Amino acid sequence: MNPHTRFTLPPELAATEPPEQRGLARDEVRLLVAEAGRTVRHSSFRDIGSFLQPGDLMVVNTSATRASAVDGLRADGRPVTVHFSHRVPDVDEWVVELRTPQGAARVHDARPGELLLLPRGVTATLQAAHPDPSRGVGSRLWLAHIPVEGGVPGWLERVGRPISYGHLRTRPPLSAYQTVFAREPGSAEMPSAGRPFSPRVLADLTRLGVAVAELTLHTGVSSIEAGEPAPAEWYRVPPDTAQQVNTTHAGGRRVIAVGTTVTRALESAADPRGRLAPAAGWTELVLGPGRAPRVVDGLITGWHEPTASHLLLLEALAGPELVGRAYAAALAGRYRWHEFGDSCLLLPQSPRQLVDPVVTRPAPYGPGPSWSTAPDL
Predict the structure, then answer these.
(1) For residues 199, 202, 203 and 208, what is the CA-based torsion angle, rounded to 10 degrees?
(2) Do residues 194 and 183 touch, judged by C-beta distance below 8 A?
(3) Handedness of CA 112, 105, 68, 279 (dihedral sign)
(4) Alpha-carbon torsion 262, 264, 270, 272, what sign?
(5) C-alpha span between 104 and 164 (Å, rounded)
(6) How far from 59 is each of 157, 212, 256, 259, 355, CA to CA, in Å?
(7) CB atoms closer than 10 angstroms to residue 215
(8) Angstrom distance (rounded) from CA 273 to CA 342
(9) pTM as predicted
(10) pLDDT tens digits for range 31-64
């Protein structure tokens, strides 16, 4: 289903390098604030605290970005770039995406059984299309068997690079793809909404009475095409964060998600009333028409392309009118798009109210390591 927000993105608005290469600090990217009942405001990200209220809770993603792209050859000698999404639980296979060199476009003619020659003598075998094995030729994603001594993650650390796409003029180092919150490697692509945060911004939020809570969601590859289902992603909402969210709502304050990854994780752990409990596992939740957010009251996000499924989530949270106004203002104001671009703060409504801040529902995977430890991603 297409989002209501429709626009044409001029190619010159792509952020073609990190802001540091444009002479800006991370927290000096632009910030557009779209709040219900108010005109759109323009600011700098370092001043985001001035648009929040004491008692608000900001929830961030601690996932760190992995070096998830490698260059190789197809069996017939054609070059290929392989993007590694995640390891499939309980089997020795990975979900991968095949693209032309530099990540410019996806490969359309791969087929089951095809061999890929990768760095340091590693060979990958395409096993089946993913998530629909019956598709055969032409799938975007594949299950691949990739035997590597010591495991694929360690091999990727040695030979891989960050996933990048054609809008970038250079290949920034992996450090450019880490947020200030990043601690647990596992994301194929950067949870980019958190990138503009800096120690200075976090100190200002503390001074202003805005609390910060953490969760983890490891992102898969982001180049979802029209009509494709959102991929399953592994997440963890710890007990302290669940408690903070429920207490914030019980006190009449807002929960602000830093990015669509945080929104997906929070909503995956919520019951129908919007009460949160500790949770971990693989989520396939899709927010959009028919499933509005129950937990999140505001969102910090980057700017998404016209066909991105993320726009449906934004519209489910903030409504097509507010999202449409934000995007129209961003285009008129020449904001920059993509992972190294500018930011948006959506504030659509009053906070949800909970009558009891106590978390009573147990974690679905039980206590301790069985739910708190991430799989080998």
Answers:
(1) 160
(2) no
(3) negative
(4) positive
(5) 9
(6) 28, 6, 6, 9, 21
(7) 27
(8) 33
(9) 0.90
(10) 999 999 999 999 999 999 999 999 999 999 999 9
